From TrEMBL:
InterPro entries with a match to the protein in the record: Cys-rich_flank_reg_C (IPR000483), Leu-rich_rpt (IPR001611), Leu-rich_rpt_typical-subtyp (IPR003591), LRR_dom_sf (IPR032675), LRR_TM_domain-containing (IPR050541), LRRNT (IPR000372)
Pfam families named among the record's database cross-references: LRR_8, LRRNT
Recorded name of the encoding gene: NYX
Source species of the chain: Oryctolagus cuniculus
Keyword Repeat tagged: yes
Protein name, UniProt field: Nyctalopin
Signal peptide segment: 1-35
GO cellular component: dendrite; plasma membrane; postsynapse
Length: 493
């Protein structure tokens, strides 16, 4: 009977229906069971295999292998051959593995890779060849047929160079890790990689970034050139890198930069120039970096910052100027309308005079600046700038701490020690009372006049007569008494 409202009656699940549903579940589960069985059945003897969501994971790391196993499960999605003794990869070294997406060959002894070694891996997206120190050379066709490769790791392979066409057949490449190599210039193979977003070239021997080094890298977002030997960055070197967000040039040998070194990098958020030999900060360097958040200028030889050098960096969260030769930093370097999250200024020989009063006030008000030790003037040397008190003159002008600590005494030579004055009077009296001998005797005496004492009995030849001697002695005693009285007056005053 039809139900009220025209609705159909609920269908009952009969025993036959339950059987049909059960059969469906069994048949749907068969591919998974078969895949797991195939993964373990075709697993190489020295490896372990396990079924994963997207296929089969094969682990052969630390297995003591000297050559690539002859067969892998057809369903393999990832293969790990790290830390073995592989030396050569022949043509089609891995056969045909249509599902393989990740292949790792790190920490082996690879010295030669045959062109076409990776044929038969049409879906490979990640290839790791790092820490194969004997590799040193790659053929231009090494990565042929890897059209879907997105990440390539060539770190620590002691590569001196790479062929210009090596990466040309990798249109999908997004990330290149090539640090800890022996490149003396930015590899020309990078040019034209329009989809590359990350390039890691740190800890090498690169000496310059030429105007043509990075042509065509329009989607590059992160570039690391730190810890190389870069002495020069040519004008317009980053002209094609308008999408760049992070640029690391720290720990190189840069002593100067062209005025337009970073022109066009309007999306740059991090710029690290620390650990170089820069002597000043030019106003023109950062004119286009309106989105910059982190700026590192630490560990240089900076002694001067041009007026307005940071004026366009309105979104800066942290500025590192520590470890330089700055004695003064003008507020004009930041104006107008500058806002800063944190300012790091330690390890500089700061002169804490009125030129830094604005900074002291900023430290107190914003609390975003700490640790500014004063090297001069002497009256505040060793103090932190936050502890320095600036005075005001009668017309409201700032008075330097050195002037505040001056005493009211008139300038002049420092008073002579009292003991030295008494000694001089005693020496003079001894000279006057010393016996006068023949010229020959006096000439042969060294230091006798200075150290002579008053004799008990003056010989007649020492003075003209006894009366004169008595008078002379009395006058000398009066002279000594007057001198001692003068010294006492000096001490009391």
């Amino acid at each position: 009977m039809p139900q009220p409202g025209g609705s159909k009656p609920a269908r009952r699940v009969t025993g036959r229906g339950m059987l049909v549903l059960l059969l469906h579940a069994v048949f749907l589960g068969l591919p998974c069971a078969r895949a797991a069985e195939a993964c373990t059945r075709a697993c190489p003897a020295a490896c372990t295999c396990s079924s994963v969501e997207r296929g089969c994971a094969v682990r052969c790391d630390r297995a003591g292998l000297l050559r690539v196993p002859a067969e892998f499960p057809c369903e393999a999605a990832s293969i790990d051959l790290d830390r073995n003794g592989l030396r050569i990869l022949g043509e089609r070294a891995f056969g045909t593995l249509p599902s393989l997406r990740r292949l790792s060959l790190r920490h082996n002894n690879l010295s030669f890779i045959t062109p076409g070694a990776f044929k038969g891996l049409p879906r490979l997206a990640e290839l790791r060849l790092a820490h194969n120190g004997d590799l040193r050379y790659l053929h231009a066709r090494t990565f042929a047929a890897l059209g879907r490769l997105r990440r390539l790791d060539l770190a620590a392979c002691r590569l001196f160079s790479v062929p210009e066409r090596l990466l040309a057949e990798l249109p999908a490449l997004r990330e290149l890790a090539a640090f800890d190599n022996l490149f003396r210039r930015v590899p020309g193979a990078l040019r034209g990689l329009s989809n590359l977003t990350h390039a890691h070239l740190e800890r090498g021997r690169i000496e310059a970034v030429a105007s043509s080094s990075l042509l065509g890298l329009r989607r590059l977002r992160s570039l690391s050139l730190q810890a190389n030997r870069v002495r020069a960055v040519h004008a317009g070197a980053f002209g094609d890198c308008g999408a760049l967000e992070h640029l690391l040039l720290n720990d190189n040998l840069l002593a100067a930069l062209p005025a337009d070194a970073f022109r066009g990098l309007r999306r740059l958020r991090t710029l690290n120039l620390g650990g170089n030999a820069l002597g000043l900060v030019a106003r023109s360097w950062f004119a286009d970096l309106v989105e910059l958040e982190l700026l590192y200028l630490d560990r240089n030889s900076i002694a001067f910052v041009e007026e307005g050098a940071f004026q366009n960096l309105s979104g800066l969260l942290a500025l590192h100027l520590n470890g330089n030769r700055l004695t003064v930093l003008a507020w004009a370097a930041f104006q107008p309308g500058f806002f800063l999250g944190r300012l790091f200024l330690f390890r500089n020989p700061w002169r804490c005079d009125c030129h830094l009063e604005w900074l002291r006030d900023w430290m107190e008000g914003a609390g975003r600046v700490t640790d500014v030790p004063c090297a001069s003037p002497g009256s505040v040397a060793g103090l932190d700038l936050s502890q320095v008190a600036f005075g005001r003159s009668s017309d409201g002008l700032c008075v330097d701490p050195e002037e505040l600590n001056l005493t009211a005494s008139s300038p002049g030579p420092s008073p002579e020690p009292v003991a030295a004055t008494v000694s001089r009077f005693s020496s003079l009296l001894s000279k006057l009372l010393a016996p006068k001998g023949p010229v020959e005797e006096v000439a042969n005496t060294t230091g006798g006049l200075v150290n002579a004492s008053v004799p008990d009995n003056l010989p007649s030849r020492g003075v003209a007569g006894s009366g004169c001697g008595t008078t002379f002695l009395l006058a000398s005693c009066l002279l000594l008494a007057a001198a001692q009285h003068s010294v006492c007056d000096l001490q009391r005053n």
